[in-house]
Protein: Mandelate racemase
Amino acid sequence: MRLTAIRERAVGLQGSAANAVVDFSGHTVSLVALIAVRDGRPAVGVAFDSIGRFAQSGILRDRMIPRVLAAPPDSLLDHSGVIDPAAVLACALRNEKPGGHGDRAAAAAALELACWDLLAKLEDEPAYVTIARHFGIEPAGSVPVYAAGGYYHSDAGLAGLRREMRAYLDMGYDSVKMKVGGAPLADDLARVEAVIDVVGDAGRVAVDANGRFPRAEAMRWAAALAPYRLRWFEEPGDPLDFELNHAVTDCYDGAVATGENLFSVPDVVNLVRYGGMRPGRDIFQMDAGLSYGLGEYARMLEVLEGHGFDRRCAFPHGGHLINLHIAAGLSLGGCESYPGVFQPFGGYSPGCEARDGWIAPTDAPGFGLEQKPRLAATIAELTS
Structure:
């Protein structure tokens, strides 16, 4: 096998969703394609960094892609002569100093995850099967999935929020997540109560503050939310303020979720050491597409299990097909879905139907990104 080209394109997100901190209408995502030749036949691996930050075009084009393409071809292959995601990642990160993760971690993840898509396509199997075999895990046939929405739309109001959540239930989801922190407390509690009324069970409703609150406000919100007995309270404060997170878990009996904005194994080590996370209760949401790819994510799971957590407490952030395959391949607790926002990347392909809150990946080779109609045309342009 020989890697012949790597292409990247910044693709804008469609729509105008906003949470308590960020307006996503101007956000972009790096779509990456690895083009290789094996036995005279072309093969293509496709992935993207994830949703919720920005494309990393400069980092990829100026640093990482040239390093990989300049490497001796055999140095990027494993013992069987196929692409090695770990070798590609190591090459992309050559001469990068420790620390300073952020966008660099997402850029590298796009390359590494495209390797996994390529490997699965070479085996003509869905990526979750390839992932499970590589890590010696029995893959899950289907995954518990919740619909993430409830963003702030200026023209929607409570009636629009109710319609949105009812639509998710009609699609086959049985649990949802909504945003808080972008409105006064009383107004947001009215939004929470409206969603609980639609879903019928507060234990199937999670709320996400996206790191919005300083410590005193996070504690006030924890006290206000406690009586509802929600599924979880997500990112009450800055994701690296582990003392704040610890303060919330000390006073809040319900589950706390965090981790989507941690981009390395050392970050996760610090979270479990200092963040007050409780085995059997709290939720970890690290995202391989934001943190150097699947290999780094698997090492994060090792950290969790080494500190007494079950991997079923892991629910990857991102709401897209790549993380659905990762959750199924690594037998995680579940996965997020964006059925109504962040197109063309958010949500799953039409063949992935939710049934009683569970979704199974299709049999499409790789991550199946080409099965998403609004994404397929862009992939075809990038890889032609």
Q: What stands out?
A: The chain has two domains: 2-124, 135-377. Residues 102-122 form the longest helix (21 residues).
